[in-house]
Amino acid sequence: MAIAQSPFLNGVPELLVLRLLRDRDMYGYEIVQAIRDASGDVIGFAEGVIYPLLHGLERDGALITRRQTVNGRSRVYYSVTSRGADRLAALAAQWHSLHHTISDILAEPRHA
Ranges for the Transcription regulator PadR N-terminal domain (predicted)? Predict the structure, then answer.
């Protein structure tokens, strides 16, 4: 069961896309599938979420593209720039901080 529509996932597509592209160049649909595979189908974002995000990250200088023909099909591959790597580091730090804070609150009730 994919949870792509959950409000908990605000900002997560960008974090996951940058993280996946840090390891290797990928094209859009490949990214969609990689997120599903890496999450065991728990997280699934439609192409309508991923492609606008990719275009925005490219406009912001976080990604660069190159076009390559594979089996007669032209594909646009995305790569993380140094600006994208910095953005990933910042997003990951925010995510880890948020995760730890929420985990602490859920685990231990606080008393005044």
Answer: 17-89
